[in-house]
Amino acid sequence: MNDKVDKLVIFLAKRDGIDKLVKTFQYVSKLVHWHVESTHPEIAQRAKQWEVASGLSRKAFRSGRFLTGFNALRRNPGSTPTLKFLAVLANAGEMVYFFFDHFLWLSRIGVLDAKLARGMSFVSAFGESFGYVFFIVSDFILITEGIKAERKLVRNNISTTSEEESFKDAKKSVEKIRVDRVMRLMAVAANVADLIIALADIEPNPFCSHTVSLGISGLVSAWAGWYRNWPSP
Question: What InterPro entries is this protein classified in (predicted)?
Fold first, then answer.
């Protein structure tokens, strides 16, 4: 029990941890508002206020977040020219998203002209979508490379008489590859979910713009991020 509490404290001490918690509030309240709108208008109104407050607080909390793209490129630009190119495109899109999100937030709280909100929302969502596409492609490439590396390690240890120490090293490498694969699959799930939300801003359509689609996508993104940011055992 104490271990779980400690992990929760560590998780909530992270900027991303708080963001995923508040994002859960935001999209649960969106679904609650949709579900009770016609039957319990008062509860629906409170849920809507909770959703709006959560969304605005997330935007405020992400101030300066666009700079993380530069840091990501500086620390881990990619191991191959293809991955480096994809990383530049992905982080560029994300930086546009977070940068213009500042202006969207300011226009929605009344500091800037409210008429700017729609334009800022479009530019921010376009950058977000652009970045997510390349993040997803990069993750699939790395997942494929990991599967190939895992098969090679397994094949080599089956076909050769390895020493016990070598076998343990190979086993650790395989476990590391599998953990990385799970994390990347979580990242893909989160990015696809966020892409659906961004597309609803860029070009509203019956599927992406439906409250249930947005609510489920938001929760998938939040909980996948929760899993990725939860402290390791």
Answer: PEX11
